[in-house]
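Case study 2.
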Amino acid sequence: MTAVRKRKTDTRYGEALAGVRRMARKVEPEPGHAFQVCRVSEQLFDATSALHGLGPHARTLLSAAALLHDVGLALGANAHHKLARDLILGYELPGFTERERMMIACIARYHRKGMPKPTHKVFRDLDKEEQAVVVRLAALLRIGDGFDRAHDAAVRRLNVKQEDRQVTILAHMRHPSPTDLWGASRKTDLFENTFGVKVLIESKEE
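Prediction:
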């Protein structure tokens, strides 16, 4: 019986995420960047499961936020992370509940700039458990976004190794991209604060 319920849940979120992908192609200013950030963030999620301890449902929320994280650019660059949050809250996202939409909006909001605070709009309306999930997923999205700072999909795949309190993220790249390495390195702050580790970014050209 449990297996049947799990299959139904997986199907619902699979269909919901397919809908977000279709939406991203229409509303994201640079869909290619959004899809690359989604791929890299998903790889980072999978490779750091021992740290964040989250399951497939959370991965779906991360994917949806990654696909829509830059929608606010259509309205303005400076505060586009906050604009993305507000736009996502106004979207119909079939297959996701209102609480899930709030979480997706907050994850997207924290892909850049300030870190989550209990007083922040929308984030403050989530319960403690939801806030904890948002923080962990936003930490992954920030780095995923940084890895496509140049918007040219240089990163093919990631390998992650943890030794004591240091996490090394090795990016296998199509070509050298100092911009992407700098972008990822400068956005490790939330990850380090959340998981209590030091992050080292490295690269290997393929």
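The CA atoms of residues 64 and 126 lie 18 Å apart.
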